[in-house]
């Protein structure tokens, strides 16, 4: 997507100050310049210290670019510098887009939040749950059917199968510990996502439906629901109903081979917390160019750029529409960004909606405001929307595993620059 799609070109830092540019003659204050420089300094230092190879940070306020900078390398070994259109593996940031797809189908009446998943995937008609016992493990029937709401809120009980209680069962299907880091990786599977999720249906969950917040294959199951309910593959549904209308040309499941040079390399933290290039394969560079290209994993499979993803988030922030293009109704957006799980979410003062974690108490999630919502990805990417500050922030790196702390400091660096 061109820079003009957001109505801006790549501007000097001084002109990307947080809402400070109201006209061509406006200039940020000396204090603001100093505070913005703190962001530059912290990220640049992380690159110099080799905690990360490179990064991209984009912040919007009132839909206008407030800060956009790239640091370091997209591919250090190939000498490719980070730039605004570098493509990143966004892993679990895919979940918000797939959840939006489900809400589109709900608005069209093709499913409801209370619809049982087995209506679309019969294999989920009789599910089971693993229970720890004095002698090891017991597998018991689920007490009720799993619903679309359970999957959206991660209360269906399904993990990524890495817990020792169920790991051997998942590993036998090349899931859980056999599927990249943490069990979520499916880009190397030579089968459609629905085939994989039917295998998950035959495996035990970690909790009864509605009883706990358990992070796992929930949104991948929803991706299969989208396919069955819409009658088209998930990649085509997302392209025709979300990314295409929004002009998100670089958001897709697999990169065209001709564009492989735009894909950032994956790095990993070594024993000294230095970024070293990750290996090829599922535990590193992945199969996002030359893989089987058959598994459209709604929970962790998408690629995107900072600008593309920020545009999606800005649509969410505005209540489901942007630049005359409506994706969802305001009521659907309100449901997605409101706590739907009570106190089941494990962090005190934070809830979970139909796609995002939601801050309910100031200080419960660092500097984020009450009502702010967002999520992150396994490659150390993250994002959030802050309605109170009219703010959208997207942070992109490619670190797996990641031991650097710069990503955790991004919120405080952004908020300290929000001065009158």
What tags apply to this protein structure?
about 425 residues
Task: Give me the secondary-structure category.
Answer: alpha+beta
Q: Taking strands numbered 1, 2, ... along the chain, how are they ordered across the largest sheet?
A: 3-2-1-16-15-14-13-12
Shape estimate = globular
**Range of strand content:** 15-25%
For the termini, the CA-CA separation is 32 Å
Report the uncertain regions. 1-25
- Please bin the fraction of helical residues: 25-40%
Which radius of gyration do the C-alpha atoms yield? 21 Å
How are helices and strands ordered from N to C?
HEEEEHEEHHHHHEEEHEEHEEEEEH
Q: Helical segment tally?
A: 10
- Quote the average pLDDT: 93
Q: How would you summarize what this structure contains?
A:
With 420 residues, the chain is α+β, with helices and mostly antiparallel strands. The protein contains 10 helices and 16 strands. It has a domain of 127 residues.
3D architecture notes:
The protein is built from 10 helices and 16 strands. It is α+β, with helices and mostly antiparallel strands and 420 residues long. The radius of gyration is 21 Å and the shape is globular. The strands form 5 sheets. It has an 8-stranded antiparallel sheet with strand order 3-2-1-16-15-14-13-12, with helices on both faces. It has a domain at 97-102 and 109-229.
